[in-house]
Amino acid sequence: VSLDDPPEQPSEQPAQQPAELRAEQPPSPPPPPPDKLVKEDEQATTPAEAVLPAAPTPAHRAPAPASRMRSASSEPCPVSEMSEAIAQAASFDELVAALEDVQEWPWSPEQEAGIKRCKTYIPDRDVIAGFYVMSINEWRVSQPRVLVLTRNAYFRIKYDPQAGKVEHYHKTPLPELRALEKTLTGLKVYLKTQDGHSGPKKWASWMVAKVSRAEARTDEFQHAREYRSALPTGAGPSPDQVCDIIAASFAKASELLRENLPTGGVLFDPPNVITTLERKQILSERKAAARAEDERAEREAAEAELRSAVAVAIASRDRQPKTSGEINHAVLARPLRRAKRAVEADATLIDEAERLKAELEEELRERLYAERLERERVEREAATAELEAAITYAATSRDNASLVRALKRARKAVDVRSELLGRGEDLKMEIDAEKKAEREAAEEASRQRKLAERMERERVETQAATAELEAAVSAAETSRDTTWLVKALRRARRAAGVSADLLDRAESLKHEIDLEKKVAAEEARAANQ
């Protein structure tokens, strides 16, 4: 399975392909997942109606002349003169003449054949120069490609040296160029739009911006592709010189296209050739400028908010009469903190606001102290009046309920006269003592009454029990039956003060009758036997 991108242009096949076969061709595969490397992500840009020249088969390809095959020992091209000629070119013809020596560089036979084939394959005929390079996409995959520069665009072409044919190409109009960066190892071309599939770094940045809801990076260095020299090592210009020539030719072609735009053409800015250090310096200066602008906007907003807060605070201080709630010192706290955090905020304004805030806080403290003293005075007078009224009422009614409430309020109040508090306490204690004496006397009378009632009940019960016992003894002596005697004896024992002689007499009679009943029972039992 090839890791190359789907072809943007059909390979070199006959143009009269049947419609049925074209319909059966599989569609381009979707973009690869982030865990798989792709070699190049390119999209078809050549119109479908463009008729491409058919490429000769490898069997009919003529071998390169011996004069065109340069060895590693050939003299290097005058790169400095070529760079100067490119810079001084005032027309496309002069630019083509300045780059004529590029085809004399010591390319390998396969590279030289590929450059020639690619120049004739592309639809544009105004070819300026061609270069065999290593293209590095955003997945950091190095791919051999042919770059062909024309008057309106440049083409990145995939050439198969084994089959001797072009597989596909990608066209980039020159107005799409934004910058050309000379790196340590090659040349980075920055474009206005994405060139191929996005790499993992862009995907990660997009995910971070999506999660954090931050703005995605959008500058001229967002979409890039890197090219490196593919000249055989040890011969001809160095890789750095090759990249210099490519960058100079791309920049000059863009300038000439900008100067020769037709009527109604869209204006564009030709790309600048910069180094990596210059790109970092540009980004650093841009970031510093954005930070300075943010600081300026924040400084102006903080100063405006602080001035408004100062005006509100002054208005609250000048309002008469006022209470502590009308002294709006808190309105300065947040604007002051914001102004102090702002860069290079007006120090005079901050000092004025801090001084005003200190004055308002001091005035607030004084006002709060005065209001507290006033509340204490009002409460003291009210508590004093209530206590005096309660003392007068309690002295007359001898009821200390209202006096207790008044004393509790007077103790909580500040600076109530101690003489008044002492008089109220003494009266309360006096009334409490009187109530206690009355309560004890009532309790003693109740106890005596209950004792007399109990003694009367005991006397009545004793008399009744005695009379019942005497009647029971008389009845038992006559009837010799102890039924009523037992009941009377039980009641007499519970009663208090029953005569002991009567109880002994009843007990003896009961014992005597029981003994008689026992003897009679034994005699009856003996008789029955």
UniProtKB/TrEMBL annotation:
Pfam families, alphabetized: hSac2
Compositionally biased residues, Low complexity: 10-20, 53-76
- Compositionally biased region (Pro residues): 26-35
Where do the Inositol phosphatase domain residues begin and end? 112-181
Q: Which domain of life is it from?
A: Eukaryota
Keywords attached to this entry: Coiled coil
Q: Would the keyword Phosphoprotein turn up in this protein's UniProt record?
A: no
Q: Which residues form a coiled coil?
A: 280-312, 343-390, 428-472
Matches recorded under InterPro entries: Inositol_phosphatase (IPR022158)
> Where do the record's region annotations for Disordered lie?
1-77
Record's protein name:
Inositol phosphatase domain-containing protein
> Which organism is this entry from?
Strombidinopsis acuminata
